[in-house]
Specification:
The chain has 126 residues and is of the alpha+beta class. Strands 5-6-7 form a 3-stranded antiparallel β-sheet, with helices on one face. The chain is elongated, with a radius of gyration of 24 Å. It is 21% helix and 29% strand. It has 2 domains: 44 residues, no CATH class; 58 residues, no CATH class.
Length: 126
Amino acid sequence: MEIYVYQRGMKVMNNKYRICKECEDEFDWREKVQRFGGYSTVCEDCHLDGPDPDADTPVLRAVTTGSGKMSAISILSFESKGDADEYCRKYEANTGWNNRRTGGLNDVKHSLFAENIGNDNHKGKK
């Protein structure tokens, strides 16, 4: 394994260690991203002290159905990851051939983000 060394001011940076852009300390960026997530240019201490960079990221899930000759996909937005996981669990338990029950899907708060639904009228008949 080759290690590339770059001179940056007084400190040395290689592919394992980076210099924090806020406090200018050297840290192992791979371990930090694996444990805490977030940006690879900020150390653990600055990451935990600052605001969460993933706080405004929406929680999206895609669910599919079979309709006619083409399947349909709906992308749903949720308020939390727990709500998204609960919806997907209930959705998988209550979908299938001739299954018209909701099974608590309407109890989970969600909104439609996007959808792609095929045309059931595939031969021009009405």
